[in-house]
User: What shape does this take?
Amino acid sequence: MTALPAKTGGMTRTRPKGASFDPLFLLVCGTAATLLLSALAGIVGSLLIGGWPALSHFKLDFFTSSDWDPVQDIYGGAGPIVGTLITAVLSLALALPVAFGVAVFLVEFCPPLLRRPIGIAVELLAGVPSIVYGMWGLFIFAPLFRDLVEMPLISSAPAGSLQEKIFSGIPNGSGILAASIILSVMILPYIAATLRELFLTVPAKVRESAYGVGCTTMEVIWSVTLPYVRRSAIGAVMLGLGRALGETMAVTFIIGNSHAFPKGLFDGGSTIASTIANEFAEASSDMHTSALIALGFVLFVITFAVLAIARALLGAPKHG
Amino acid sequence: MALLDRRNRRKAANALFVTFCTGAAVLAIITLFAILFSLVVKGVSGINLDIFTMSTPAPDSRGGLANAIVGSVMLCTVAMVGAVVVGVLAGTFLAEYAGVNRWTNAYASVVRFLNDVLLSAPSILIGLFVYYIAVKPVHGFNGWAGALALGLIAAPVVTRTTEDVLKLQAKQLRESGVALGAPMWVTIQRILWRASQGGILTGALLAFARISGETAPLLFTSLGNQFMNTDMTKPISNLPAVIFQFGLSAYDDWQRLAWVGALLIAGAVLSINIIVRVLSQEQKRS
Assistant: This one.
């Protein structure tokens, strides 16, 4: 950053002792940066190369067929791909309103005594490993969900109605909706913590002037706070979506692991990540391995797109 | 009259909004505490000395998690050593050397963006990549592969924090190095790194917290091992994989061990996070 001028005002200045090592250190640091770069390139490359046999063999069928049959070596990935998108979007739809409420509560009308403890608790919970959420989902949440939600909704549905269609499936506590709920519990602290940080960046003057002209809390949030942080807030939500898309363990425990198209919200399904986690180490044939890696490539493309949009919206982070 | 009506409507809407937000907060907090509560209740009852002294058992026999704990500590330690070396150097490049000339500047912005992508790439994909470069060529799951996968998850975190912390250092620190006649690499190592120690440590701890609970990339890199193993060239046991395997099993005692493992990991992660908080608060004070 501070390149030394060799000459200053006609006088020659001796180069500092050991300055000849500077390029070497630059090289070392640059190499470390290049390592990270090549890791990412390696990920993309290995996914593409590893998945190519399956992609070129099944071509478009890989994306349109949900026929996943390791015995006959036929693989169509539509089930997991659709499952990934559905669970991620559903979980975001469930988590976002609650996270928004939590953030507003913490910033606007939480008793000051509780503000810090709750804020810290939310941030700590954002760091709890996802496998813990998965365990909780399987052992505590699933039985409750089965008895309190699935059973009543299925048994009360009149034959042939829309309700029956939406809520069809086996009432065993696991399935698409259960997995989405667990996912939403997992991403909730993350989104809430980020939204809270964003809300706190709104200058007090701006908010107070809105209160000064007689706005209610709701009006302040809707017409002052939200417009102020809009772009970054959408970016933060997209990052939450990215997490939900790639999440493995929280989902694998409870989604039911079936490769068919889910027929209803209570039906078992699978996501790309859960399929890979379940089958990769025990893949039966080369084509099976390749199909799983091809699924991984699809997942990478989806998450990359989401992340790129999130970055663009969040703007370049304050660098340089 | 109309004015009063409108005022009442606004007040009612606001009351509804306040209720919604408070309700959301209460719901979220109850759920999150329910998770912690069941974790503690289910986990604590299973903790005894066997957990720390015996290896994972066959169903219906006595055993503990000793091999998994040792394995997890080994994998995470090796991963962190690598991640800190690479991360600190790469972060230094981004913060200090990006401005050397046009080329380094362009290169740095590419690295910065892709580092962010790596930071939030699904961890299971990192596992797939490592399987390709470190498991398939040697025809066997091994501990090094697991550590490499974890390291690849931790390194972007360290890089990011190192860059951020270095950028926060005052320009005067760099100038003081120049004034003493030190070359840039000495200035960076002796002055800037030392000044940023606390921040870099914080980043490393956060990265450590993140990888200690990572499960997905270990499933097909270091796999797991029913026995105590400290040989990194062989499959090595680790807590997350044991939780996954035992939790989904049908045996009661395996499930109990899974809960204990989950409690241990969550406890470790939470305490690291709390240490980080205390550390960064002390830095602010001094």
